[in-house]
């Protein structure tokens, strides 16, 4: 797939690109083009598995797989993790029926218009640049997971320790290149047209580390399936 780049996240009514990626949970390639004319698909474009927030978002999407399939909608998880590392992770942390693909170069994220934020000393131009003092002021509140609202770096460290997640050299490379990568979920109809999205881009960063509720996502799925 050519490295297609758009300046802002795709919106409802836009045609999705044909991304082609290495499958993690089975052999071969996965291409969005294969679904066109056949079924709608929910595409989750996440950071690497080194990100504890995205590990939780991935698990949440996987938990809805059965309900989505009941409406005739497929689901694809894309992670910024090299395929060998990703396969090892999912071997020890299996998610039933998960269809996942590896995109360590974040080609699909650029194609869907998800920016990789540059962290700066004192300059903020959301969603392209953000100053570190702004980052440190963005507390993550995850009741039941965190003991209290915490700055993003401290929250990530706490959750990785809680999960017993040990960073490998591959994880460190992905984190260094894509620490600021924003994630998004895109629901495509059977013709490959975007019908619903959730991304971290809107609201000046207030959506960072958040996720749509299952009710919101399934409501959108019902509209696409009808």
TrEMBL record:
InterPro entries: AhpC/TSA (IPR000866), Thioredoxin-like_sf (IPR036249), Thioredoxin_domain (IPR013766). PROSITE patterns: THIOREDOXIN_2 (PS51352). Signal peptide: none annotated. It holds the Pfam family AhpC-TSA. Residues 10-226 form the Thioredoxin domain. It comes from the Bacteria. Residues 205-226 are annotated as: Disordered. GO terms for molecular function: antioxidant activity; oxidoreductase activity. This is Redoxin domain-containing protein. The lineage of its organism: Bacteria, Pseudomonadati, Pseudomonadota, Alphaproteobacteria, Hyphomicrobiales.
């Amino acid at each position: 797939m050519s490295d297609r780049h758009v300046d802002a996240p795709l919106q409802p009514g836009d045609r999705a690109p044909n991304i082609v990626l290495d499958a993690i949970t089975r052999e071969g390639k996965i291409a969005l083009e294969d679904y066109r004319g056949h079924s709608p698909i929910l595409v989750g474009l996440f950071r690497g598995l080194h990100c504890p927030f995205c590990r939780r978002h991935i698990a949440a999407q996987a938990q809805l797989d059965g309900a989505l399939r009941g409406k005739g909608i497929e689901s694809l998880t894309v992670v910024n993790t090299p395929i060998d590392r990703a396969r090892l992770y999912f071997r020890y942390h299996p998610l039933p029926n998960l269809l996942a693909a590896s995109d360590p170069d974040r080609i699909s994220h650029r194609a869907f218009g998800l920016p990789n934020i540059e962290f700066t000393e004192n300059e903020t131009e959301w969603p392209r640049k953000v100053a570190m003092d702004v980052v440190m002021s963005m507390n993550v509140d995850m009741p039941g997971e965190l003991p209290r609202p915490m700055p993003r770096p401290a929250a990530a460290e706490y959750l990785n320790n809680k999960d017993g997640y040990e960073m490998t050299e591959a994880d460190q490379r992905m984190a260094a290149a894509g620490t600021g990568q924003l994630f998004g979920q895109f629901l495509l109809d059977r013709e490959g047209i975007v019908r619903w999205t959730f991304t971290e881009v809107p609201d000046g960063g207030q959506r960072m580390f958040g996720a749509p509720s299952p009710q919101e996502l399934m409501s959108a799925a019902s509209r696409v399936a009808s």
